[in-house]
Write a structure and sequence with these properties.
Structural class of chain A: mainly beta
Low-confidence stretches of chain A: none
Shape of chain A: globular
Mean pLDDT of chain B: 94
Largest interface: A-B, 23 and 31 residues
Strand content of chain A: over 45%
Largest sheet of chain A: 6 strands, mixed
Helix content of chain B: under 10%
Radius of gyration of chain B: 13 Å
Oligomer: heterodimer
Shape of chain B: globular
Number of strands of chain A: 11
Low-confidence stretches of chain B: none
Number of strands of chain B: 11
Number of helices of chain B: 0
Chain lengths: ~110, ~110
């Protein structure tokens, strides 16, 4: 089983719509969780950290379910600039390596 | 906002040659990393470095690879004898290391082995 699994997509989303997708992780010892975004042939950039109680940053909402070992990301009012690959990332502890999922590709269309 | 910088942005090298990829992490960060991403694949961990020594390495990081922090600012990845399969984007990252703090990535070096 892969350590971090994501639906590769693509998710084709009309501009202004809402899109949501999940990832699952296998290591129950994982402690910190993040969503990064990656544009084509660019570096991963932090989108948001994911907290146990769930958290929101503008149009983005992240949820964590430790019991089921999944993380979700919801994007409201999608913009064309949201088109990217969204990477689910977990780590066991502060300073430890990041483990990446394969990414979920989102295409926002006019 | 401080950022991680990497040089060169693109390196083309003949198979069997040595390459050195350079990174300048964010200045108050204590943990440094190298990751790679083969085209079309996921980002993979190579090595982490803390307190002037390797703290963890993956099975990819064999004896052809080495890292060094030669001074207070640079962090380098050396590949001694490159292979075709070393062609990838190589990303350097750093973090202060407190719980929950994310790693910040440089914009990468594209390594092409001919």
């Amino acid at each position: 089983r892969k350590e971090v699994e994501q639906d590769p997509g693509p998710f084709n989303v009309p501009e202004g719509a809402t899109v949501a997708f999940n990832c699952t992780y296998s290591n129950s010892a994982s402690q910190s969780f993040f969503w990064y975004r990656q544009d084509c042939r660019k570096e991963p950039k932090l989108l948001m950290s994911v907290y146990s109680s769930g958290n929101e940053d503008g149009r983005f909402t992240a949820q964590l379910n430790r019991a089921s070992q999944y993380i979700s990301l919801l994007i409201r009012d999608s913009k064309l600039s949201d088109s990217a690959t969204y990477l689910c990332v977990v780590t066991r502890a502060a300073g430890n390596k990041l483990t990446f999922g394969g990414g979920t590709r989102v295409l926002v269309k006019p | 906002e401080p950022e991680v910088t990497q040089t060169p942005s693109h390196q083309v090298t003949q198979m069997g040659q040595e390459v050195i990829l350079r990174c300048v992490p964010i200045s108050n960060h204590l943990y440094f990393y190298w990751y790679r991403q083969i085209l079309g694949q996921k980002v993979e961990f190579l090595v982490s470095f803390y307190n002037n020594e390797i703290s963890e390495k993956s099975e990819i990081f064999d004896d052809q690879f080495s890292v060094e922090r030669p001074d207070g600012s640079n962090f380098t990845l050396k590949i001694r004898s490159t292979k075709l399969e070393d062609s990838a984007m190589y990303f350097c990252a750093s973090t202060a290391g407190q719980a929950g703090q994310p790693q910040h990535f440089g914009d990468g070096t594209r390594l092409s082995i001919l």
